[in-house]
Amino acid sequence: MPGETRARIMDEALRQFAERGFAGTTISSLERGVGLAEGTGSFHRHFPSKRAVLDAVVERELTRLREIRPERERDPGRPLAERLAGDLEFLREVRPLIEILIRERATMPHLVRRVQEVLVDGGLTGIAGDLETGSDDPAAAATVLLCATVGYFLTAEFFGDVPGGVDAERYTRVLSELLSRDRR
Predict the structure, then answer these.
(1) Overall pTM surpassing 0.85 (yes/no)
(2) What's the number of CA atoms in the CB half-sphere (13 Å) around residue 163?
(3) Is 25 helix (H, G, I), strand (E, B) or coil?
(4) 12: Cβ–Cβ under 8 A, 6 or more apart, which residues?
(5) What is the pLDDT of residues 107-129, one digit of tens each?
(6) What's the gap between Cα 107 and its chain centre?
(7) d(C-alpha 77, C-alpha 95), whole Å
(8) Contact predicate 181/132, CB 8 Å
(9) DSSP 8-state class, residue 131
(10) Which residues, at least 6 apart from 133, have a Cβ–Cβ distance to it below 8 Å?
């Protein structure tokens, strides 16, 4: 059961840190959120501090995300628009982590660097090897794809509607046309 309680604390911490930020989340609120008696030391049997649970949550999420989305493998048979749709779905899975990073980037740069290493730098390497744009600069093409897709996702999430009335299917189709060597 201790592993189960630890996992419940981490789930609750992910939710609260994404909603309230690190400073707005208390150990007592985490204890309440998982049904532990406040102030009894229950939390501290699993984590020495609130910072330790945040670090554990980020590492757990990065591990989980690597399992959901292994390094991009070259798959010339799979249309780019389909891969882009998968990228948008992946971003939905990453949303709580993105929210934490947005809130904590100034106070916890080590978390930002860690997530950047795994998601951005690792993702760009995979994307650059996967694209067939005809560009002399595949790293720049990969960066355009990544930034456009993250921008589309964040704009839709922030405003609660797709940008310009362009749904995800249209977005991925047109971006793939712009980036593909074989424009139709």
Answers:
(1) no
(2) 13
(3) coil
(4) 30, 33, 34
(5) 988 888 888 887 777 766 666 66
(6) 19
(7) 29
(8) yes
(9) -
(10) 141, 179, 180, 181
